[in-house]
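ok trying again, last paste got cut off:
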Amino acid sequence: MVCLGGLHLGFGTFHQPRAGFMPFLSGLLLGLLALVDLISGFITHWKAEKRDREIWAEVNWGKLLLTVLVLFIYTALFSTIGFVIATIFLLFFLYRLMEPRPWWIVLIASGLTTGLFYLGFKIGLESQLPRGFLGF
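nice, full thing came through this time. structure:
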């Protein structure tokens, strides 16, 4: 469906891509990966097949729901407080929640990760990121 939608929008060429270029390639890659996974499952006969109860029993529902809530808050505040501050807070929360480490390590990792994303998107790709009320 994604590939058909991409073709409907117009593929263009590799030198002059049109709106459907990335959706088509993304859908094609997703389809190929799904096919590889399906063939792999047939070959191994799903040896480690588990029942749904076994799979879902290991999920920490509190962490999952808290993470979804924080992602909604991040999305709501992203434009208001800006990319840098919102992303540092989001990553601080996620790094601290997933595997608790000392707060100073998590703060440094959050800042470095946000800085690398800022360099990649704002400087490298010249994307427009929200500045927020502090101007950065």
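cool. The two ends are 39 Å apart (CA to CA). Residues 2-44 form one domain.
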